[in-house]
Structure formats: C-alpha cells, structure tokens
Fold MFS transporter.
Amino acid sequence: MNVSQIKQTIYNNPMSPFQIFAVSVCVLISLIDGFDVLTIAFVAPSISAQWGLAPQQLGVLFSAGLAGMVIGALIISPFADKFGRRFIILCCLVILTVGMFASGLSTNHTELVISRIFTGLGMGAILPGINTVVAEYSSNRYRSLAISIMAAGYTVGALIGGVISIYLIKHFGWQYVFFFGGVFSCLMIPVVFFQLPESLDFILTKKSNNALDKLNHLLSKLGLQTCSSFPQASIETHQKSFKLLLAPNILKSTILLCVSNFMLMCSFYFLANWTPKILVSLGYSTDLSITGSLVMNIFGIAGGLLLGWFSKKYSVQNVAALMLVTAFIVVTAFGFSANVLPLLFTLIAFIGFTIFGAMAGLYATAPAVFPPQIRATGTGIVLGLARLGATLGPYVAGLLIAAELPRGYYFLILALPLLVSAICVFVIKPYQE
C-alpha cells in the first residue's frame, strides 16, 4: 500500500474500535484542558475575597494562564511536527500536573500569576496535538463530529470543574480545586504513554530509523495490510514544510483562521472568566455564580455536539458563522438585560450554546486548512495567536469594569469581535491536495 491508499482506506472506511479509542483518549485530555483553563474562573471570587484583589489584578490573573497558552502554542506545539504529537502531549501533561500543584500552593497574587503562566504552557501546546490526532484518526464522514466531541470534552471539563469547585471551596478551600486538577492530569500520563498511538501522518512524513516497524505496528492495530517497504511519498514535501505556510493559498486561509480564532477567543474568555464575578457583583452568592457558569457549559456541550451533527450535512464553516452571529446578539442582550435571575440564566444558556458550538466549528476547520506535514505547526500558530485574543479579552474587561463603564456597554464592546470572527470563518477555503 502507498501513502495515498493508506489514508484513503482510513478516511473512507467506517471507524475501527482502535480509531474510536484514540479519539476517546484525546477527548479525555481535552476534558483535563478545559478543567485546567477555567479553574481560575471558579476560584476567582474566593481568591478575590481572601486577598482583596482589585478588578485590574483579577484581569491579570485571568490573562496569566492564557498568556502562557500563547507561548505554549507558538513555541512548544511546532515541536510536535519534529518529535511527534504523542511526545509533546506527554510533555504537556507533565507541565499541567506541576503547574496545577504550584497554583494550589501559591500564597500571593504574584506566585499565582507565575504558576498560571507555567500551567498555560502545557494548556496551549496540548490542544493542537490532540486536535491533529483526532483529525487524522477520524473518517471523512465523522471527522467534524469527532472534533466537536473533543471540543465538548473541553466543556465537560469546565463543567466538572464547576461542580467540584463548589464542594471543594466550601469544605477545603480554593487551593484544593487546583490540587484536584493536578491529580487528574497526572493520572492521564500513563494512559497516554501506554495507549495513545502516534499520529499516522507524522510516521508517514517523518522517516526515522524504525519508521517501517512503527507504521506496520499501527497498520496492524487498524486492521490494515502491512507494508514490506516504507512508502516514499510526502517525505520531500516535509522538508519544505515551513515554506508551505507561506504558499499563497495556505497563507490567506491561515490569516483568516487566525483572525477568526483571535476574535472568538477574545469574547469567549471574557465570558468564561468574568461571568461568575459579574453575577456576584449583581448581588448573587458565589455558589449561584458558579452555577451560572455550569449552565453556560452544559448548554455549550449541546451546542458543540449539535454543530458536529449538522456538519455531516452542511458546511461546518457556515454553521459556525451562523452561531457566531447569534452569539453576538445574545451576548449583547445579556449586557443590557434587567437583573432578573431567570432571564440572566436563559441568556447565559444561549451564550454557552452558540459560543461553544462556534468554537467547535473553528477547531474542526483548522485541520482542513493545512497539509498533513505542517498540521500541528499550523494549528499551533493559529491557536497560539488566538490565545492573544484570549489574553486580551479578560484584561480589557477588567479595565472597563474598573472604569465603571455600564454593563451593557462593555458587553457590547466585547461582543463585537464575534461578528468579525463570523465573516472570517465564512470565507476560508480548505486546503486541496
């Protein structure tokens, strides 16, 4: 079998149990990533009360982990195309474990900011790796659905974080929310080491000394015919991988995807991080404010899965664009709504449904933009630059709130990026081999 035949067999046949298992492991990792990223939103009210933090300091704290994610996605994730997706995922899990325990042991604002930046290195680099593995082990028919389920795993992790946080903060203190996340990440290290397969495209494009043995071992697990010699296609192309990023058709799509993700993350992380604190400022309890985040995440899971289902019949980009426009309307409505709890929670539910669904759509779009040999590098660059938006959103919100801008106005300002994101994702052209 040549490279093309191997890929076409995997992409066109029904997914085997081994492929489903590989995707499932990535979903679990995404769950951990979601827990770790949004933990700070759940503990922020307790930390703010204990340490007497100003809104600007909270904004810095929210943005610290996201700043680390930018560095991780831009600097660490490209190494996945050189050393393998599986190796980088393992390194990131180690970073997450150490960073979460360090966060729980922090005794002041500065220490926690540094710990969150370190944790962000792992959070930023792990997503491009698992996104690539899911895309490569999924069939054409179920690829968008599989990536949507992976994105939903991120939301489930945030949901678990909210539920666990309510109990742990009440009985043990906010530090134990971080400790729980550290244990969770640590338990996944042996699972990935022994069970997660290496990316097929990485094996095919990165010819190492034992590449044929690795390929045949993987083919046997996939139930495919083994090869007597290593397929030669795509190796020369790999050596020109960075030049491919500058090719006109890929560069244009890369820029559009970067802008779309940047704008979405700017609004998304503002909402994810500040929603509990805003509800507290409106007069509701800490438990109720965390419940608001849970509502957002529960409906976010539904939105991500629904997008994946629709993408089997409709363009994932068109569905994502529609969700982004709807999210803009709902986020703006929340900002100008009356302080009535049922109304606020209803709007929060719609926000979660649309904005998490749109995020799943952008995750599904990324692998289609890049050729296999630069998929991790390209996805890492896109998500790394997107994290700049994730860093900017919460920080700008802190400044606007500190300036006592009315809620409706700063919600409108931070909802506008969703419209820009919708336009960009709508016009992106997928890569054609």
Observations:
- The domain at 7-427 is CATH 1.20.1250.20 (Growth Hormone; Chain: A;).
- The CA atoms of residues 5 and 11 lie 10 Å apart.
- Residues 234-239 have pLDDT under 50 and may be disordered.
- The radius of gyration is 21 Å.
